[in-house]
Amino acid sequence: MKKKGIPKAMEQSDSEEELDPEKHKQSLEKLKKIDPDFYNFLEENDENLLNFDVASDDDSTKDEIEENVHKPGPLRGDSDESDFEDEESKPVKGKVNLKMVLQWQTELQSEGKIKLTTLTTVIKAFNAAMLRVTSEDGTSTGEFKVEGSSVFNAVIQMCVLYLPAAINKYLGMESSGKDPQKCKHFVKIKGPLLSYLNDLLKLLGGVTSENILTVLLKHLHQMSVYVSCFGRISRQTLKKLITLWSTGEETVRVLTFLCILRITRNQQATLLDIVLKAMYMTYVKNCKFVSPSTWPGINFMRRSLVEMFSLDLNVSYQHVFLYIRQLAIHLRNAIVVQKVENRQAVYNWQFINSLHLWADLLSVTSNKPQLQPLIYPLVMVITNTIKLVPTHQYYPLRFHCVEILINLSKESNTFIPILPFLVEVLTSYDFNKKHKKVSMKPLDFSCILRLAKSQLAENGFKDSVIERVYALLLEYTANESHTIAFPDITLIAIVQIKKFIKTCSVTNYTKKMRQLLEKIEENSKFIEQERGKITFALNDDKMITAWETSIRTKGTPLSTFFENWNKINKIQKRKKITKNDELAGELPMIKRRKISEEVLNKPTKENKGPLVLFPSDSEDEDNNFKVEDEAKVAKVKKQKKKKELKKKKSKKTNNESEDDTIENQDDIVQDLSVNDW
Q1: Which Pfam families does this one have (predicted)?
Q2: What is the DSSP letter of 437?
């Protein structure tokens, strides 16, 4: 549309300070007459221009403009001072302060009914606290906003201490063993509860302090009943807990395992398979390196895994059978393909610790029939592991395997022929061979599988081997000392031990083995005497079992000797763990010196009168010093008399006195001072 000329009143610039309303109105009237189309256009699109308030003055228009303009307020920082607001002042909408937290805490602890609004409000506040930590800019997009560390700590503490009991009370779950999903009001709180568990899991994943982790794990243990109600949350929680179970500190590991156990038992049908597989793989990954510092953690993981596999033996059978089969496949490949890589797949700590795990599990469940068929294949895997490389370099590995077999035989009440693997050590190695190196202490085989060539050349190697053979032979024979076939079992071992005693020239070794031999022979005679009193047939299993039980309760000479020896051995192991011997070795040793009588009686500036260094010493030692000094003085006098007769000089007497002092100075300890002690 073509526009015509605009009046000069409309062409005024925005920079004019004053505007006359009357002139503006007149110009609009002229515009309506001159160009009605343009006037209609303004009426449709800009009514404010036409409806100009003539009565308003300049001041009112300025006030309206100033009211419409936004004026920024003073800036406020996020400080702890904002937490402590005046009680009478009204808080900002959505902002959490300590007064609100205290009010919620009182409602959670109330003796009456717990309101759903209280629980949802507390959970929303916890979510706001978590958003303050997890969000990038630290702002909350929810209904509440948590500012300041004191409010944050108060909200977390309130939820940890009082929320589980309040939820239990709301759902009516004061009585234990009730399923939350069957409660009447569970549907109402399901959504907020899921949000809270998600936030709790985030908080658990971001904490590194052991003390805070301990508190959160105790809280999670209380909430584990509700964790089991959500499949996704359960799997995420278990994944995080298994990591802490394998890498955390001692207290954290124990609490983590209790949480895993409780969550799994609450949802055993769906979670047990996943948990067993995940925990076993984690155990294998974390037992690759063994040292005195890692042994406690590995032992704890093994014992807790045995507990988990014992929950359902029918489910566990499939896992145990599969994993023992995998170990057997590795062993078969190492036997068939004689390569270093295949042998290393067997001769490592992961393989040995796996054998240890399954032996412990079969020992614990020996009174139940589900896993007993797996004892034979496991024993075959262990014995063939010993036979794979039967050299003296792998004696530590042999001893670990033998120890596993002894425990399995004892706990499962199953006969396993172990003696040949121990006696073979005495016959296959020459203990008369002279060592090339001298070591102060025997080697510790507890954290070793293979010995280096330098260790084989030390005398400590032979000492450790004899000690381990003696201990394992004694333990095994003591476990079998009540059996009716004990004299027959130990016959070949007795012959080989006697042969070792005859051929070995090291008295310390022969003395130990002779003592063991005497105890075994004594026990054999005892069993033979008891067998002579038997009236029942030897094929009667029930009577033989009853006879062996009575002999065990009665006690055998070998079992009594082993109990006494084991007490002393445990004390020595504790000393090694606490390193008492090393601490005692670092103490300063006092060396006594021989000091002549003249020096002891000679007064000095530091010591006026006789110097007594060791008042507790007996007088006999002092008398010995005096006798020795007197003999020396007499001898010196005789020599001086001969010199006097030969030289016959008048000045000889003065020289003699000087010589006396010189001769007597041989026994004087120089630089002696009380401060030196």
Answers
A1: Noc2 (PF03715)
A2: B
- Can you state the angle between helices 619-647 and 652-664, rounded to 10 degrees? 150
Beta bridge partners of 437: 458
The DSSP call for residue 458 is: B
* Chain CA centroid to CA 554, Å: 42
Alpha-carbon distance 492 to 481, whole Å? Answer: 16
Distance CA(308)–CA(264), nearest Å, equals: 9
Decide if 611 is inside a domain. yes
Contact 227, 233 (CB under 8 A): yes
Nearest to 10 by CA among 65, 26, 36: 26
Residue 18 half-sphere exposure, CB side, CA atoms within 13 Å? Answer: 4
Three-state DSSP at 277 gives helix
Residue 465 lies in a domain: no
Residue reference for tokens 């004053």: 18
Tokens 């076993």 locate to 280
Give the integer Cα–Cα distance in Å for 525 and 523: 5
Structural domain tally of the chain?
1
SS3 422: helix
User: Bridge-partner residues for 146, per DSSP?
Assistant: 96
Q: In the structure encoding, which two tokens stand for residue 177, read together?
A: 């063993």
- Give the type of residue at 606: E
Q: Give per-residue pLDDT as tens, 356-409.
A: 999 999 999 998 999 999 999 999 999 999 999 999 999 999 999 999 999 999
Boundaries of domain holding 608: 590-641
**Selection from 374, 344, 338, 370 nearest residue 357 by Cα:** 374
Q: Residue 146 belongs to what H/E stretch?
A: strand 145-146
- State residue 95 phi and psi, 5-degree precision: -90, 125
Give the position of tokens 């081997």: 465
Determine the Cα–Cα distance for residues 21 and 6; give it in Å rounded to an integer.
17
479 inside domain:
no
Nearest to 350 by CA among 340, 358, 361: 358
Residue 285 counted as domain residue: no
Weakest-pLDDT range from 119-133, 224-238, 582-596: 582-596
Report, as an integer, the average pLDDT of 296-309.
95
Q: Check residue 609 and give left, alpha or beta (phi > 0: left; psi -120 to 50: alpha).
A: left
Give the model confidence (pLDDT) of 17-30 as tens digits: 444 666 667 777 77
